[in-house]
Write a structure and sequence with these properties.
It is a single chain. The chain is α/β, with parallel strands linked by helices. The strands form six sheets. Strands 7-15-14-13-12-11-8 form a seven-stranded parallel β-sheet. It has a six-stranded mixed β-sheet with strand order 2-1-3-5-4-6, covered by helices on one side.
Length: about 725
């Protein structure tokens, strides 16, 4: 995971309107005297002898002074006169997470601990600013609790959010969100940091051999190294407890040594050995908490109860991102697994996902679906959630999404669209309505789609699931027009947004080839590039001004490479005349479900070597298509390219065969380019007299090998 922490830039946030009943147990009471008519503020501790009350009253006084016109004259540490009194209390016995009590000329703030008090004080400062023009708080979210009598509990005790806007510690405090990387002694699949360089006993024994891609959880050396790490870096936890994730590496290999087998490991489950180690650590450090991951080899829980300070973070990877997710077979299976973990674990969290990890730069309408999931988790007794996003890499609308998701983790009963619209209205005065309209429409399309959102998909997936190409193009063009009319922060944010969305515009253009939203038109079997394409490319060139916009996806594909391949492969080769351009081949072999449309093999759009989402037709069998000869009988040269990506089991064919009227005519062997990424089968042909032509790409030997092909070119 990304480890960078962005500095707080006082970006404005907006919350829902003051919802006095947004939390469980909230009550409403008439407001007293407005603070705006008072001479100033008195900030007082509830108990002068309480160190925490004193600390947090001083914090509120100092920060309110910085925001107040008049500073110390307006905000004071003593009462008296016509002052509006702000009383601060930290009460560890408070049943709620927070409480606001409105008096006639003052407010009493109570929270169970300092972290909740921090959030509550920023809620207060924004509420005061809403009533008193002497207070400046435009950088803060509007309060969800206001200045009325209010109390409530947060939906989840742990609220992790992995987005660029959530990385800053100041912002996390304001939003009451958790940074998983800095808030845990160990997080995710980071156990390797502790065990790296250890003896071979710390590594798994797989098929009789040590495998350094996975760990042995029954090894005494593994335990002693973790014990030393906790003791040396975090102590016993009696004064400051911490959480630790003790989980296998992100690999489904399972240790089969004698000790792990005796613990109960099987070929499919490492849970027994992992939970055994977790239980031992929980006993050794009773003040710390130890979690494992409900994922891959530890998907299923153990049959016996775990200690109270031992828990699990269950992955929701298999839960479909669809409206009917929890009614689907996979959803019911997930819910059953969650319940089984709750029966044995001391604490259950959920690790969920909010991003298309193959495409960071195309908008991803996940807010409505996530609100439904959060309500389900809350009602199921889940104690914490971690929403895995793009880390430090930019995604469109990240500022809005981070705010809305943070608010939903506090109270998933709120309306995502209401939160979103109010955010845009406050932070984007000129463009807010345009942005909100697009995002709301995208959320509705995703909600109405019969297909779940794909966490690993390209532009074809997006268009199949929710993205309307015409609506996006109109939005993009409207955004281009409104940008010059904006100022300062809105202008900077819109420039960055439009830069990122230029990638989506280019992807739509590439995917649509020669149709009305494509990058070219078909002129006599030759694609003529739309002059606007250079404008989209130039707009995306501005990504160099934004360091956080270097990558397209979690695999680290670079935008600079994408642009270079557009200019170096797609644009020049679009001008090559292809006698098959627009002629849709007939499928002879059985196509993969996602690739039934063979038109992409003759749409004139070359595949980009960057990855398999970029214009490649995937086939799990030998690829065979046919078409009437027609003008193609005049061809003098054949050419067809394939993508070689062994990591994804994509291999070039061992041969490409051309058939004339059912008889084998020629065989070509694909030749790799300089980088070994694209293999091209090419050579002269004479198809005169043929009535029907077939092309067959023969897969190389190997299990589960697939072909990724782009254009079939017959060149006169």
């Amino acid at each position: 995971m990304c480890s960078c922490i962005s500095r707080f830039k006082r970006l404005a946030f907006v919350a829902s309107a003051a919802l006095c009943c947004s939390f469980e147990g909230v009550g409403c009471a008439p407001a007293g005297v407005s603070p705006a008519v008072c001479d100033g503020y008195a900030v007082l501790p509830s108990d002068d002898l309480s160190r925490e009350d004193l600390r947090w009253s001083e914090y509120l006084c100092d920060h309110l002074r910085r925001r107040a016109d008049g500073g110390e004259r307006t905000v004071r540490r003593e009462g008296g006169g016509k002052l509006f009194t702000l009383t601060v209390a930290v009460d560890t016995l408070l049943r709620a997470d927070f409480s606001v009590e409105r008096g006639r000329r003052g407010v009493r703030l109570t929270a169970r601990d300092g972290r909740r008090m921090l959030w509550l004080q920023y809620q207060l400062m924004k509420s005061l600013a809403d009533e008193d023009p002497r207070i400046e708080a435009s950088d803060l979210p509007p309060a969800t609790v206001g200045l009325r009598d209010t109390s409530g509990r947060f939906a989840f005790g742990f609220r992790g959010l992995y987005t660029p806007a959530a990385h800053d510690a100041d912002r996390a405090g304001i939003l009451a969100s958790d940074d998983a990387e800095t808030g845990w002694g160990l997080w995710g699949h980071q156990l390797g940091r502790v065990l790296a360089g250890g003896p071979e006993e710390v590594y798994a024994l797989v098929d009789g051999e040590r495998y350094d891609g996975q760990f042995c959880f029954s090894s005494e050396e593994t335990y002693s190294r973790i014990e030393a790490y906790v003791t040396d870096n975090f102590g016993e936890g009696d004064t400051a407890s911490l959480r630790f994730v003790i989980a296998p590496a992100d690999d489904d290999a399972i240790c089969g040594c004698a000790a792990c087998s005796a613990a109960g490991n099987t070929a499919k489950s490492a849970t027994p050995a992992v939970v055994g180690l977790l239980t031992r650590l929980a006993g050794r450090f009773p003040h710390h908490e130890f979690f494992t991951l409900g994922y891959l080899s530890t998907l299923e829980p153990p049959p016996v109860a775990m200690p109270a300070n031992a828990g699990v973070i269950v992955s929701a990877m298999d839960l479909p991102f669809a409206a009917d997710a929890f009614r689907s077979p996979r959803g019911k299976k997930f819910a059953g697994r969650l319940d089984r973990w709750r029966n044995v674990a001391g604490e259950v969290y959920v690790w969920d996902y909010i991003q298309n990890f193959d495409d960071y730069l195309t908008p991803f309408p996940v807010l409505e679906r996530m609100a439904e999931r959060l309500r389900f988790y809350r009602d199921r007794g889940v104690g914490g959630v971690f929403l895995n996003g793009s880390g430090c890499d930019y995604v469109p609308f990240d500022d809005m999404r981070t705010y809305v998701l943070s608010a939903l983790m506090l109270d998933p009963g709120q309306s995502p669209e209401t939160l979103m619209r109010r955010y845009f209205a406050e932070n984007y005065p000129r463009s807010g309505e345009l942005l909100a309209g697009f995002c709301a429409d995208a959320e509705r399309r995703a909600g109405a789609s019969k297909r779940p959102l794909s966490l690993y998909g390209g532009i074809r997936s997006a268009e199949a699931e929710w993205l309307d190409a015409g609506a996006f193009v109109r939005f993009y063009e409207a955004l281009e027009k409104v940008l010059p009319t904006t100022k300062e922060a809105e202008r900077r944010n819109l420039h960055r947004l439009l830069t990122a969305l230029s990638y989506t515009r280019l992807e739509i253009a590439r995917n649509h080839g020669a149709d009305s939203y494509g990058f070219a038109v078909n002129k006599g079997g030759r694609l003529r590039v739309n002059p606007s394409a250079e404008g989209w490319l130039a707009a995306l060139d501005a990504h160099a001004d934004f360091p956080e916009m270097k990558h397209i996806n979690e695999s680290g594909f670079r935008l600079s490479d994408y642009l270079a391949q557009w200019r170096g492969r797609l644009l020049p080769e679009a001008g090559v005349r292809n006698l098959l351009l627009g002629v849709k081949p007939e499928t002879v072999s059985k196509p993969d479900e996602e690739y039934k449309d063979t038109g992409m093999l003759t749409d004139g759009v070359r595949g980009l070597p960057l990855g398999y989402h970029y214009g490649w037709h995937i086939s799990s069998e030998d690829l065979e298509v046919a078409f009437p000869a027609g003008n193609a009988a005049h061809a003098r040269r054949f050419e067809m390219s394939f993508l070689e990506l062994p990591r994804h089991r994509l291999r070039a064919p061992r041969a490409v065969e051309i058939y004339k009227d059912g008889a084998l005519y020629r065989t070509f062997v694909p030749v790799p380019d300089a980088e070994g990424r694209v293999f091209t089968a090419s050579g002269p042909v004479d198809l005169a007299g043929a009535k029907r032509i077939s092309v067959r790409a023969v897969r190389p030997d190997g299990r589960r090998v697939q072909l990724a092909a782009d254009e079939i070119c017959l060149i006169p």
